[in-house]
Structure formats: C-alpha cells, structure tokens
C-alpha cells in the first residue's frame, strides 16, 4: 500500500476531516510504511488517532452550530409570532 492509499483510507473512514488536515501527515505515513512493522504500526495508530480526534472536533462544531441556529430561529419565531403588521402595510396590501 502506498502512503497516498493509506491517507485515502483515512479520508474514507473519517469523511468530515478536511484534506488539508490530512496532507500534513503524508511524510509521517511514508516513514511509517518504511519502518519496522511494530514502529510503523505505532506511527499509523497515532495518525489515525489524530483523524479520530479531528472528526470528533468537527462533529462537535456542527452540533454546536445546529444548536445555535435553532436558538436563533426560536428567538425570531417568538418575535414574529407576536408581531402585528403596521396599519400602512395592511392598506398597501389592498
């Protein structure tokens, strides 16, 4: 397996991780694949752990963003629900 193939495998396992995040690990993956088996396995474990953490961080950011958007929608809906259109708007419509 080539270093690029290994990196692509991580991108498939962790689809929310950005390419620019993973690209910086390419030299490390190259060294891992050239190293003794146990050393290479440890290096690849560390790289995959970094991907796991980045995916979790991104998942948390998305959840926070969704919560914030929901709060904004609730506030706007609360304001609009009690809104009475001005008299000029009613006259304009007819």
Fold and architecture overview:
The chain has 94 residues and is an all-alpha fold. The chain has one domain (3-83). It contains five helices and no strands. Helix 1 (3-13) packs across helix 3 (26-34) and helix 3 (26-34) packs antiparallel against helix 4. The longest helix has 45 residues, at 37-81. The chain is rod-shaped. The model has no long low-confidence stretch (mean pLDDT 87).
The amount of helix comes to over 70%
| Count of discrete domains | 1
Q: SSE order, as H and E?
A: HHHHH
Mean pLDDT: 87
Q: Any idea what the shape is? A: rod-shaped
* Termini gap: 72 Å
Counting helices, strands and paired strands, the structural category is mainly alpha
Strand content: under 5%
Main β-sheet description = none
Low-confidence stretches: none
- The number of helical runs is 5
How many strands appear in the DSSP assignment? 0
Report Rg. 25 Å
Task: Indicate the topology.
Elements: H1 3-13, H2 19-23, H3 26-34, H4 37-81, H5 87-93
Any descriptors?
94 residues; mainly alpha; 5 helices; rod-shaped
């Amino acid at each position: 397996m080539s270093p690029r193939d290994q990196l692509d495998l991580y991108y498939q396992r962790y689809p929310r991780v950005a390419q620019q995040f993973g690209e910086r690990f390419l030299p490390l993956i190259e060294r891992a694949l050239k190293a003794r088996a146990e050393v290479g396995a440890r290096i690849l474990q560390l790289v995959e752990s970094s991907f796991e953490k980045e995916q979790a961080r991104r998942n948390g950011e998305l959840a926070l963003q969704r919560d914030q958007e929901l709060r904004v929608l609730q506030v706007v809906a609360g304001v609009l629900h009690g809104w009475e259109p001005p008299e000029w708007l009613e006259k304009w419509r007819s």
